[in-house]
Amino acid sequence: MKEQRRAKKAQIDAKYATERPQKPYKDTVRENAVFENYYKQQGIVGTDEWEDFLACVREPLPAAFRVTGSKSQAEQLLHLIQNNFFSQLNTTTSKGEEDTKELATEETSTTSVSLSQTLQNTDLADVKEVGVSEASESNGSVTAASDAIPDTDGAAAANGSTAAAGDTKSSELKPPTCLKWYPDGLAWQLEYSRVSIRQNNTLKKLHSFLVSESESGNISRQEAVSMIPPLLMDIKSHHKILDMCAALGSKTAQIIEYLHADSADPMPEGFVIGNDVDNKRCYLMVHQIKRLQSPNFMIVNHDATRLPSLTYTNEKTGSTEPLLFDRVLCDVPCSGDGTLRKNPEVWRTWGPGHAINLHSVQNRVLSRGLELLAVGGRLVYSTCSFNPIENEAVIANMIKKCEGAIHLVDCSQQLPDLKRASGMKSWKVQTKNGDWFSSFEEVPENKRSWVRPSMFPTDDMESLNIHRCMRIVPHHQNTGGFFIAVLEKTSHLPWQSPKVEVSESSTESAQADQPGSTTVDKAKEPPTKKVKYAGFREDPFFYFEADNSQWPSIKEFYKFEDSFDHTQLMVRSKEGEKKRNIYVSSKSIKNVAKNNESKIKYINTGVKVLARSEHEMCKCSYRLVQDGISSVDQFVHGRRMNIEKADVIELLTQENPFFSRLTPNTQSNMLKMDMGGLVMRYLHNDSNTGTESPILMTGWRGKTSCRVYVPKFERHHILRLCGVDPDKALIDAEWAIKGKTGPEITAADVEDPPKDGVEEITAADS
Ligand SMILES: C[S@@+](CC[C@H](N)C(=O)[O-])C[C@H]1O[C@@H](n2cnc3c(N)ncnc32)[C@H](O)[C@@H]1O
């Protein structure tokens, strides 16, 4: 509860922090002469492309989403989206016009703001901090417009490029676009205005469907270009992964999905640490990550430039070693001008000084990331800025500093359908006063503390392979702007000394396949000055000891197999015997947590697996929790039941159905079982896609009735997979209860299975 309150407070604070300074969209003029002159001078696109570029960045950004989840369920969900929504979008337009004539008349004087804005503004996609000084940047204040849900109704985009309400009626709606470069056709882009959504029932339903499915973690609404860096990280299930500037977590979520993707094991060997300097944003990220119900993540709250050196116990040798990562993402704070289609406020605030302010912190985050990267590991550096001072300059400077220990990876064969431009080899530096410099030698003495040599290109750009950096420019494929560089570390850095063996999983690339070893040189570690923790600091996690007094009864009741290591279970406070909730984390996360208790500022880890649920007739004081069931399912051999589709629908639409409402098999199995928590399994066979996927639901077997503990949005998701419209089914069910249509329902019969309401708010549960 404490965490939920904190997450809620962080959400509210962030909303107001972002709303206060914001101007309504109608005030935002999508023009800025300084911006235009700056990038024309820099030649970020060829002169023949300039007008296309400018026209495109003035358009609102299409909204995008990815279908996530297990492979079979993702396929089923995609089929459902295409069948229920996409197939109707081009044909229902005219019907939608008729349906909504009245509404349209009221609104013909308004100009719409695109769905891209409404969806982007409600999503947790890239949020770049715009126009802040380096000092305030590292304070990590929440300033980006995209956190807020602005009241855009009736507001006009200033350049009038968005469709008017009248247009929506008379023109065909644009069909959704599949992002060809994203694997398996699972990512899509949509361009509908808010008015179109109001006027078209299919769009209205699609909108609430996307919101609902993203709450249950089965789709992620995320800007298209923001999906690229995790794809280029080449993540495997055994990787140790660090996301250095992770909030609000859209890329971290994607990384976690990939960590689980190629493994049948619900607790794979690898793990993901998501870090951010901003305490509030860390709590917001919790919500984003919790949807995925992964036991393999940890959220921490540090300044990435000074991330502490951590240790890890090598499972094979039992020795404690420095924790080095196989994959690092540096999605650094940046000026964010690549997001100006999404955040039109950037047009008003943009200035050439922002990049100069951010260059140093970007260098320092990258440098620390490379120190923490294992030899053979891969680091992806990204920004949503067009500016070479934040991009190529940072990469070139670091490659030179590392004296051959890192190199740019050639990604030209990866994501072949993604259009990209090469890294720039020349550029100039402009100060906020408008002075241009081509080289550091031209910079007057009084500006040299601010304009640094590392901001300029040098003669050796070719030999650094700087062209391997990737620039995504909006007009190439109707996206935002982005910069990505993929680096590989082939030996220890010049300022690190080779002392400790690198773990096997870290030595993947051919270059690193050598008896290399490395550790962070103490002399070059970030200053050990005592860090003052601002904002909330969570209590540490208390893992079960081998002789935990509660475990035997839990183990016996649910018949947990011996191979389940109960010391991976943990609680959130030490005092008292019986805890309200018990969480599980993977072995690897426990390894990190146990080794670094005093060094890490934890925000969140683990997935809830058991909740206290005492009943005089039940032998175990805990019931299984939906969040963590897929993590432990394979170990639980008691209290399980296979059920049928009709049971799933009954259990998800009725509060406490009597056994008599279930199928005969399920009824008889219920009668054979004692009271208490249980897990029900239904093997969903989808005839449309020819795929099978197991659906697990935790519940409670009462005296004469039973119930499931499945959070609202997950209920909706499962019902949809079963071919049931959740809105309709739940309304019908409510009426059935109100009208007491079932002859067997009497007040005296309704029993009271333990109900703590926890799952109902799990989506926000941090
Ligand atoms: C571009 S956003 C990250 C977006 C995120 N990767 C995502 O995909 O949702 C940059 C983040 O860097 C954080 N930040 C700024 N300075 C930082 C620092 N010194 N250390 C760690 N994080 C920092 C900001 O709080 C912000 O959340």
UniProtKB/TrEMBL annotation:
Positions with biased composition (Low complexity): 106-115, 151-168
A Gene Ontology biological process term: tRNA methylation
Listed Pfam families: Methyltr_RsmB-F, Pre-PUA_NSUN2, PUA_NSUN2
Renumbered residue ranges of the record's region Disordered: 1-27, 92-115, 131-171, 497-526, 745-766
PROSITE patterns: NOL1_NOP2_SUN (PS01153), SAM_MT_RSMB_NOP (PS51686)
EC number: 2.1.1.203
EC supergroup of this enzyme: transferase
Gene3D superfamilies recorded: Vaccinia Virus protein VP39 (3.40.50.150)
Ranges of compositional bias, category Basic and acidic residues: 95-104
Family statement drawn from the similarity comment of this UniProt entry: Belongs to the class I-like SAM-binding methyltransferase superfamily. RsmB/NOP family.
Protein name: tRNA (cytosine(34)-C(5))-methyltransferase
Organism in which the protein naturally occurs: Bugula neritina
Lineage, uppermost ranks: Eukaryota, Metazoa, Spiralia, Lophotrochozoa, Bryozoa
